[in-house]
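Final report, results section. Input specification for complex C-07:
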Amino acid sequence: MVQDNGKETTLALKLRVWRQRRGQPGAFEEHSLAAVPTSASFLEMMDMLNEQLIKAGQDTFAFDHDCREGICGMCSMTINGMPHGPLPGVTTCQLHMRNFRDGETITVEPWRARAFPVLKDLAVDRSGFDKVIQSGGFITVRTGSAPEANNIPVPKPVADEAMDAAECIGCGACVASCKNGSAMLFVGAKINHLNILPQGQAERDRRTLAMVKTMDEAGFGNCTNYGECQAHCPKSITLDVIAKLNRDYLRARVKEFFSSTGKPSKGGD
Amino acid sequence: MKLDSKIPAGPLADKWNNHKAKLRLVNPANRRKYHVIVVGSGLAGSAAAASFAEMGYEVSCFCYQDSPRRAHSIAAQGGINAAKNYQNDGDSVRRLFQDTIKGGDYRAREANVYRLAQVSVNIIDQCVAQGVPFAREYGGLLANRSFGGAQVSRTFYARGQTGQQLLIGAYSALSRQIGLGTVKMYTRHEMLDLVLVDGKAKGIVTRDLVTGAIESWSSDVVVVCTGGYGNVFYLSTNAQGCNVTATFRAHRRGAGFANPCYTQIHPTCIPVHGEDQSKLTLMSESLRNDGRVWVPKNAADCAKPAAEIPEDARDYFLERKYPSYGNLAPRDIASRAAKEVCDEGRGVGQLVDGKRLGVYLDFSAAIQRLGESEIRARYGNLFDMYENITGENAYKQPMRIFPAVHYTMGGLWVDYNLQSNIPGLFVGGEANFSDHGANRLGASALMQGLADGYFVLPYTVTDFLAGEKSGSRPSTDAPEFKAVVKDVNDRVAKLLSINGTKSPRYYHKALGKITWEKCGMARDKAGLEGAIRDLQALREDFWKNVKVVGSGDALAPELERAGRVADFLDFGIMMCLDALTREESCGGHFRTEHQDAGEAKRDDAQYAHAAVWQWTGDGQLPARHAEPLVYEETQLSTRSYK
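Structure output:
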C-alpha cells in the first residue's frame, strides 16, 4: 500500500516459526523481520525471512507453496493458530500483510494432524488425501469411451451444486482445524461433486463406501460437528456436504445389506 | 540435426485419420511388458499417464508437487475451446483451425493445428463424462462464452476455475489407475536428467525432494509434459515451481528446442506493486467480455481517481484501434496496446520506479446493464481475488491491469507424432512447441494439453513402442545410467559446495530483470545483444558466488531453486539469441525494428520457419537450425483485428 507521500507502509514483525526435521521433535524459533511492506503476501514475507536467514548462513524454513493465487492448494500454514490465517475464504498465499499490525508477534506452524506427518518445518505429508481419491473419487470412463457431451443434460441447479463442492482445492485446512483431525469436509466435498451428477450415479454407492473406508484407514478422525473446518475452508465449503456424505453412506450401507443374496461374493471388480 | 516433421500426405482434413489408420499397434497382452515414464502431471501428463494405463501399459508418473492435482494447469481460469458449434454461430473445425493459425500469426504447423481443432470436440465429451462441472443453461445443456481472437462463442468454462476442474477430471482418471496399481505415482520427485541408450530415450534420473535421494528409472519410452518456461522472467503468472529443467536437460542431451523467443504476455494481470513481489496474478481474459479497457486521454489526468475522469476524457483504446474485436483483441495485440499507452505517459495506478504501469479494466457499464449480482455470478471469485491482493473493490472502482508473462509457445521440437528428434522422447502440452505458433489464443492451452494427453500421445507412443522389442529396456545398472547419475550427483554437490554470498533468488531476480527489460514485450538488436552479454556474466557469477543453504538429504527448497535458476540462466541466453536472430515481428515476438506503426511486421519470405536450437556445450552459444513451415491450404496474410 502506497501512502500519499509515495512511501510504502511497512511493518516490523516478531515471528515464532516451527522448525522440525522429519521424524524428530520440533520447536519454535524466534526471528525479527523489519520493513515488511503491507502490500506483500504472507508467503512473500516468509521469502523475506528466508533471504535474511541465507544472509546469516542459516537454513531456511521449508514450506509448501506453488501457484500463489489460491487455487493449487499447496500452501499450508497455521498462522496464529488458524489454518490459512485470520481471513475467511482465503489461502495463505492470498493473505496479505495489510491484515497484520506493526510490532505484532506472528506464530507460524505446520498443519497439525495425525494423518499429516511433518516432512520438514512447515511442510507436511498430505498423501492421505490422494489415497482417498484413488480408492473411489472418480467416475470410471476410459479415454475415448465418452458419449456426446450434450447427451447428458444436467439441470443447472445440480451442476451449480456439484460445482460448489468441486471448488475444494484439497489443501487440508479442514483436517488441520479439526480437533479430531477429521477429513469429512474434504471427503464430503469430493463425494458431493460426483454423487449428485447423473454421470456419477452408476458408481455412487461403491464410491461412497470405498472413500469412507480409505479415509478411516488413512488415520483421519471422525466428525463431531465442531464446524471448525467450515470456518477455515479457503473455498468456503459448507458443512452440508458432511450431512450429505452421511446420508449417502447410510444409503449405501443399507443397500449393501439388503442386496446381499447370501451367495458368496464373486468379486470381479 | 535432422528435423523431419513427418506430416502425413493428403488433404488437411484427412491427415490425422489417415495417419491413425497407418500407425502400428501393440497387442493387448503385450502392453504390460512395456514401461512408460510420464514426467509431469498437469493436463497433458495426467491425461497421458491415465490413458496409457487404461490401454494396459505399465506406467510411472513423476511430479515435483506433493500431489499430481496441484500441477499449474490448475490455475487456468477462463475456459477451454472446442468446435462444438452449440451456439449455432457458424463455428466448425475449420473455423477453429483458421482462428488458431491466424492467432498464432502464421507460425504454427498447419497439420498439428488442424488435428487439435478436430479432437477438441472429443475433449469436451471426455471431460463431461468424468464429471467436470461445466457451466450449463437452464435446459441442462452446456453453456459457452467468448474469448479473444474469435468471433464465435466456443469456450466452455467452470466458473473462474476451468483449469482446476479439468485437472481434477484428469487427476481422477489418473488416480483410478494408481488405485488399480497400473500407474506408480512418484510425487515430490524432480526429473534432473534424461538417459539415452543407443541414441534413444530410455529413462530419467530424479531427485526425491523429501529424502534427497538421486535415483534412476529405466523405461521403453519417456513422455515429458512439464509445462513452460515463463519463470525465466522471474515475475510471471506461473507457479513458483514451474521450471525449464526437465526440457532443458533433455535439450542438453540432444533434443532440439524450438522458438524459445515465442513468449506470451497476458494483457490482464494485476500490476507490479513492489520489490519483494514473487509473482504476478492473472485476471482471466473472460473479464474482457464485460470489462472495457481505458486510460485517460490526457496524461495530466493519470493521478486522479478514475471516478473524477469524465467519459469524454477517457480513451477506450482497444475499441478505438480494433473496432471489430474491441476489448477481445488477441493477447499479444492487447498487451502491446497497453504498453504503448503507458509508454506515452498515460498509464494509471501508483508510481513504481517513476512510472505508472497500468490501465483500467472497467465494469461500470456492464454493472449498469446487467446488475452487480450478474457480474458477481460471472466473475465473483476474480473480483474477490483482486480485492485480496490490491485492497480495492472492483465493483466500485475499475480494476487496474497490466500485461505479464503468462505462457510460452516455444518448447522442445516435436514432429507430427509429438516425438522429439531423440527417438523415444515424446513431449506434450506447453512443453512442446507445435500448435500455437507465435501467439496462443485464450482457452487454447487447456485444449492442447488434453488433446495431446488423451487423443494424440496414446496413438503415437504406441506406434513407437510397436517398433521396440518388449522386455528390451536396459537395466538401471547399465553404464549409461551410471554416468548420468554421476553427472547429477556432481552438479548437486557443486551447488551445495560453492558457498558464496548471494542467494538463488538474487540470481533469479537479476535474470528476470534482464529478460523482461530486453526480451519482454518489445525487443531490439542492441538490447538483445546486451542481454546475452549480461546473462553470460550473470551465469559466470552464479557458479562462483551462489550460496545454497540446507542439506542434500532433506527438503531443500534453496537447492531446488538453485538448480532451476542455473538452467534458466543457460536457457535465457538461448531465448535472447532466438529473439535476436528472428529478424521480424510475429505474434508475441515484437522487434521494434520490424513494425508498421505499432503492428507486427512479419517476413514470410525469410522467417516462415521454426527455429530449432541445438546444444553445443557449456558456455557456448547453441546452433540454429530451421524447419520450414509449409502451408498447404492456408493463405498467409497480415493479421488484422481492425
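Chain B has a mean pLDDT of 96. Chain B touches chain A through 84 residues (CB under 8 Å). This concludes the modelling results for the funded period.
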